[in-house]
Design goal:
Blueprint: E1 11-12, E2 18-21, E3 26-34, E4 38-43, E5 52-61, E6 64-79, E7 86-95, H1 97-108
Antiparallel strand pairs: 1-3, 2-3, 2-5, 3-4, 4-7, 5-6, 6-7
């Protein structure tokens, strides 16, 4: 039997959700999974270990789209099986209250798949 030790439920991203570095406005990867407190990024650009990032991504919102901006700390990285890609774990350190509610709603939406 497997036990989950994470504090927050992580929803698997079934569609491609691109993530931008808000400072450079470049796409740095896509979301693997997302919670209220962090995300797994499948990065296609080089990242700096233990750095702080300002990330921006767009979540589907009941037929529309909502832009989410978060301050995030890169906690870890590991090579992915695809060339020039890495798995990267981020912890959110700054999220506006309205966007935190939107994240929570997206993670808890009916029909979600969890990791």
């Amino acid at each position: 039997m497997m036990h989950e030790f994470r504090r927050a439920k992580r929803r698997k991203a079934s569609d491609t959700i691109l993530v931008n570095d808000a400072m450079t406005e470049h796409v740095i990867g896509r979301i693997g999974n997302l919670s209220e407190t962090g995300l797994l990024l499948i990065a296609s650009e080089p990242l700096t270990d233990d750095a702080l990032y300002q990330l921006r991504f767009v979540l589907p919102d009941g037929g529309g789209m909502q832009t989410i901006d978060v301050g995030a700390h890169l906690l870890w990285m590991d090579r992915a099986s695809a060339p020039a890609q890495v798995w990267a774990g981020f912890r959110f350190i700054a999220v506006a209250e309205a966007q935190s509610k939107r994240l929570r709603s997206w993670v808890e939406a009916p029909g979600s798949h969890y990791e």
